[in-house]
Amino acid sequence: MAENKIFTLSQVAQHNSKKDCWFVINGRVLNVTKFLAEHPGGEEVLIESAGKDATKQFEDIGHSKAAQTMLLKYQVGVLQGYTIKDTPSFQETKKKEMEAYVIKNEGKLKSATLFEFFVPLLVAGSYFAYRFLAGPDDIVY
Question: Could you tell me the pTM of the whole model?
Answer without folding.
Answer: 0.56
